[in-house]
Each structure stands twice: as C-alpha cells, then as structure tokens.
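// run 5 | inverse folding | seed 20
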C-alpha cells in the first residue's frame, strides 16, 4: 500500500485553496461538506462557486496565496493550474508543516484525494494510488449503484444504539456478531423497507433477549459455498458476503489464493485439500470437522471449487450437518464446465450442434471408468468430462470402441478462467498425444462434441489483451457488475 487511508476530522479547521477554478470548487465543496473553514485565494471565482457562496464557512480572498496564509492551516490545496503558484504553495506548506495536495503534480502531493461515495455517515473512499484515477471513478460509479441511499440512514440508526449495545454486550466479538445478525437480519430488513420504528422495536427485543438470558452457547452455522472455477470475478455476491462474515474457512486445493484473499482478514483458515490420489483429509473427517466447528458456535464457510453440488461431495458434507440439526445454507457457484466453456468460446449447447449436454466424471480406480457409454455416444450432444485428464487415453479409446467417431472434435480446457488458462483442441484420436505435448497438468475439463468447432471463431479470453477488447471492458455500464 503506497498511501495510508484515513478519514480526517476537519470540522472548524482551516483549509487553504489556491485557485478559483473548477478543481478548486470541487475541493472547496467537499471540505465545506466536512465542516472545514475554507479560504479560497484567487482574483475571481468561477461560476461553480455560486452554490457555495452562501456558506458562511467559505471566505474568498482576492489574491493568490502568500506564505503567511499557510500558518495554522490544516491542509492546503493547489488548484491554480499555474506552475509557479503551485511551487510557491508547496514550499509555503512545507515551511509551515501543512499537508498539501497540488492537482496533477504528484511530487507536490503529501496526500491524494479519493473518489468518494457519500452516504453520510457512511462514506466509501476509493483510491488507485494516483495510478489510474479513471478506474477509481468507474469503481465509484459501480458502488454508487450498489449502495441504496438508505444505507447512510441505516448507519445513522445503528450509531444511535451503539452505546446501549456496548453496555449490554461486553465482548467485542459478540458485539460484532450481534450487529451483523441485526443488520443483515430482520432489523436491517425492516429499516431498509422504511419501517424505522419496527426496526427499533426489533433491535430492542433482540437486546433484551440477550440481557435477560444467556445466549452465549449459541449454535454455529455452516455455509457451503461454491467458489467458481478460479477467476474471483465469478464469485456470487452472496459468496462474497458470507466470506466476509465467516469465522473460519475450510477450503480445498481448487480454491486459489486470490479468492482466499477476499475472506475476512481475521478468519481462521483450515486446508483440507486433496491432491488426486492423495487424501489430506478423508471425507468423513471433513464432515466431522464442520460439525465440530459449528457446535463450538463458529460460522463456518465450507468453500469448494466450482459448484458444491457438482462432483463436489457437498451433499455428503451437509447430510451430516442435517443429522445434527446444524443450520446451513448452500450457495451455488459457476461449475468448471460452464466456466471453461464460456472462457474458451465453446457453447455447451447450440442449435446446429448439440441439444443436450452431459457432465460426467472419469475419475476411476485402476482405469475402470464405470461410465454409461451408450449415453455418452449419443448424437447431437456435448459431453463435459471432469477429472478425466489422468484417464484420457483410456477414455478416448473406449468411447471410440463404443461407437463415437474418432474424428469427433475434443477440447481440453486446462486451468479454465484463470490467467494461465490453456485450450488444446483436437479430435478423439489425436487428443491424448496433443495433451501430452502441451504438458498440461490440470485441473482440466474435457469437452467432447461438434460444438468444439466454434472455439476458433468464438474464443475471446486469450485475446483479452488486444486493444478492441480493452475498449469493450471500459465501456461496460457501471451497474453491469462489480
Ligand atoms: N465442484 C467442482 C468440481 C470438482 S471436481 C465444479 O463444480 O467445478 C474437480 C474437477 O473439476 C477437476 O478435476 C477438473 O476436471 C474440474 N475443474 C475444476 N476447476 C477447474 C478449472 N479451473 N479448469 C478446468 N477444470 C476445472
């Protein structure tokens, strides 16, 4: 991190602005909104100052800044767009130990001004460290569209009860959990739906319940969450929210570091990864671990690659939870076949090629695949094979024996949706050799069927660095995604 983010209490303090143009007006507006006494130095002020002129905290001084003006100021902005004045302002600020920011002159900036989403008292400030202000602004627009205006009022509401809650709930951890449950539960729902009074009643009732009884031994919860195939952008909003809420994450090999980085920072991490044929922890033990953690009152995030209910044994894990009456929820994720198909430009169904698609796993002991071959060789169908790389040769030979043409197109998508994604295209008869040559190691999905022919035309991910594509990205509408 190149800069230290802080929120400054500037109420009643002096802010000096040298310049009277557009940039100066923006700086003045924000400083006034935060309650500062703002002095603007310039012969004249642009029209953009009109709405601010009535503010009694704004003073217009009809000349450029001189050194003495900086004495006793808290911060100073250079906004004159005149290099000589900028240099003078910076030097004067240094003399008086005042932090300064000069628009567009990095070496004269002790601090930078973030893009701001204002839902006072809730404020989101975004910075790209000066490297790419446009990205910060785009992000700001997206956050604007995500945060309902009532969020600010909700923060105010929560603020009103802070002391009362602190008196009733002494432990910080318990307090945080209380607020999270309240805000994301009925209290928050009622408030955002416009029933502030009902929200207040609910909050008080919850507090009383805590004050009167002993809610210490509360049961934990388990969230079985699909993390998608790799690209963190493919997480669902709910996955992200629960990742921010959980006390402990239990994850396996397919979940990458860039996804784990989105967990709440102080969450405990337990790795139960499995390498093929090397079981770090038996399935039974994992299920037991989830039960034990939940019985200790933890909110447990069981994070799995792709979708938890597709070749993820998620069902087995929650059966045990259900047997122990432990509350759980399941959050779907983008399954590997879907992610690989999209990121390799191979539609799994297509009117001209395939009217159905089957997902199978070719993971079998000693090459015994145990697949329903008659189903796999049906025409007009796409077959997506999970865990098939180590049995590829066997699979290819057997499927031809069972009647599929050796010329059927096949793609292997290795490390799909990740930066190092590789797509290898061939036919059933050539694919084993090609995979060996390419030296891929998985995880990989094998896609079999004539839809693979579309890859040449529709692949886009490998071209993402090309200029027309970056243009396309920048022009995404703010509400499209975050
Ligand atoms: N529940 C997961 C699948 C787990 S089985 C899901 O829904 O995706 C593990 C198999 O998933 C791997 O052997 C591989 O076939 C596939 N897989 C997982 N992530 C992948 C990725 N990023 N690229 C290609 N295949 C992947």
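// decoded
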């Amino acid at each position: 991190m190149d800069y230290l983010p802080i929120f400054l209490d500037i109420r009643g303090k002096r802010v000096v602005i040298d310049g009277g143009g557009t940039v100066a007006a923006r700086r003045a507006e924000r400083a006034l909104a935060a309650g500062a006494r703002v002095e603007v130095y310039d012969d004249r002020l642009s029209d953009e100052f009109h709405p601010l002129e009535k503010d009694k905290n704004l003073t217009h001084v009809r000349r450029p800044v001189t050194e003495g003006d900086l004495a006793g100021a808290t911060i100073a902005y250079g906004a004159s767009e005149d290099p000589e004045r900028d240099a003078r302002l910076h030097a004067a600020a240094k003399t008086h130990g005042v932090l300064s920011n000069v628009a567009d002159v990095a070496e004269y900036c002790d601090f930078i001004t973030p893009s701001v989403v204002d839902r006072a008292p809730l404020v989101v400030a975004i910075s790209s460290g000066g490297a790419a202000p446009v990205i910060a602004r785009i992000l700001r627009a997206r956050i604007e569209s995500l945060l309902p205006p009532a969020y600010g009022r909700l923060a105010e509401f929560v603020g009103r009860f802070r002391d009362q809650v602190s008196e009733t709930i002494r432990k910080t951890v318990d307090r945080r959990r209380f607020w999270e449950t309240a805000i994301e539960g009925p209290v928050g729902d009622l408030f955002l739906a416009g029933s502030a009074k009902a929200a207040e009643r609910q909050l008080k009732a919850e507090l009383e319940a805590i004050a009167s009884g002993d809610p210490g031994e509360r049961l934990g919860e388990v969230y079985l969450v699909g993390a998608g195939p790799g690209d963190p952008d493919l997480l669902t909003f709910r996955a992200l929210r629960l990742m921010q809420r959980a006390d402990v994450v239990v994850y396996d090999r397919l979940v990458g570091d860039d996804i784990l980085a989105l967990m709440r920072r102080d969450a405990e991490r337990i790795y139960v990864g499995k390498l093929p044929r090397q079981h770090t922890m038996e399935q039974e033990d994992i299920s037991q671990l989830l039960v034990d953690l939940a019985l200790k009152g933890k909110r447990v995030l069981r994070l799995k690659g792709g979708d938890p209910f597709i070749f993820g044994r998620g069902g087995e894990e929650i059966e045990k939870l259900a047997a122990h009456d432990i509350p759980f929820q399941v959050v779907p994720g983008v399954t590997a076949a879907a992610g690989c198909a999209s990121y390799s430009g191979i539609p799994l169904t297509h009117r001209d090629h395939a009217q159905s698609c089957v997902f199978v796993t070719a993971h079998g002991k000693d090459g015994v695949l145990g697949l329903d071959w008659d189903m796999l060789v049906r025409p007009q169908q796409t077959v997506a094979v999970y865990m098939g790389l180590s049995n590829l040769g066997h699979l290819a030979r057997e499927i031809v024996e069972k009647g599929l043409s050796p010329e059927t197109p096949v793609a292997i998508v290795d490390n799909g949706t990740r930066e190092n994604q590789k797509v290898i295209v061939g036919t059933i008869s050539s694919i084993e050799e090609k995979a060996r040559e390419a030296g891929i190691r998985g995880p990989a999905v094998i896609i079999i069927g004539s839809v693979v022919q579309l890859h040449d035309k529709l692949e886009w991910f490998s071209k993402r660095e090309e200029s027309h594509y970056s243009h396309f990205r920048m022009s995404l509408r703010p509400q499209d995604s975050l």
